[in-house]
Amino acid sequence: MSSNTLLQIGPFTQVLTLSGLPKAGPITDEALQVIENAWIVVQGTQITDITTTPARDIPTDNITTPAVATPGLVDAHTHICFGGSRARDYALRVAGTPYQEIAARGGGILDTLRQTRAATEDELRDGMLKRLDLLAAQGITTVEVKSGYGLNVDDELKMLRAIQGAAADHPLAIAATCLAAHMMPPEAANHDAYLEYIKQELLPIVLNENLASRVDIFVEQGAFSIDQARSYLSHAKKMGFALTVHADQFSRGGALLAAELGCLSVDHLEQSDNSDFAALQRSGTIPVMLPGATLGLGMPFPHARKALDAGLPLAIASDWNPGSAPMGQLLTQAALLGAAETLTMAETWAAITQRAARALDLKDRGMLLSGQRADLVVWPTGDWREILYHQGAMTPSMTFVGGKKFAGRNVLERAL
Description:
The chain is α/β, with parallel strands linked by helices. 36% of the residues lie in helices and 20% in strands. It is built from 15 helices and 16 strands.
């Protein structure tokens, strides 16, 4: 079949489009557009129409049981390129050892650093490909992936090239982020010297090889200070990188810096309060909350309800990583955060589709609408509310990525 051939998929009991919603702030369920008994028409990688009257002269991919179509899910914050496991850290953490104490003992990010440095580029890519299969099976069609476990030029480039290689070998769309400023590696003289090393030696190569368009930094005690992050991010912005920040996970300050610099997104926000949310609303920075990290660390959820009521376009991401958020499972995380923070279903759906896409500056996905990328998920139910109601236990019957039905290699085998 030619890439320009029309294809109509359906009939769907319901199509949940996620279009026509407020760009920011609260959303009522009544604002959701739900089209009954509809077909989605695709040409190449794009949606051309959603119709209740199928055409006789267009090839059909028949849906023979009750089904709901939604946009493909967007996971806007992950660390799924890594080596090894942190099961030892998890055992210490659930026994009561604080996350930052585990890191001080040589665990935490530096433990994954050692295992990632020991892995080859091929091993990192192959591990990623298995994880991408699992994400596609969960209905995720776009995923952000960070470096940040190499923490030197050679190993950060190895990670970013592994991410690039996985993107070339897998149908899922991948947005790469350079997180070389994740922690200071043990061999560095000090934080300032390490950031200068990254700025001079790594970022020009990342830019020249088009390995990532985004730069991130972890602003926290034990990682990088607000002043260090301000200097580093300002430099990266001048180079042409989009900016995002790990902020306010254990202490406040990072969110205000993200607002000051006009970052595209700011992620975590467990400690953020109303003054932080007001600053983010004024700056246009998108808050990305990560319930997987709060679940993994046994912390209270971030204040998602307050963020929405402050007029922010809340996004939710999984933070899938080998340490603080090993579960992945974006839909489960979003449903649990929604229940804890009294989010409407519409707010939760927007946070993992169209608003998450905006956190990655991707304007062509997150909705089922003519002209959008044909990323869609088919769910085995006749009522869209059932999907979040089952809190991740309902899995898609089909996932279409860029107009093509995804067929995973081994989605039943969990890649740890």
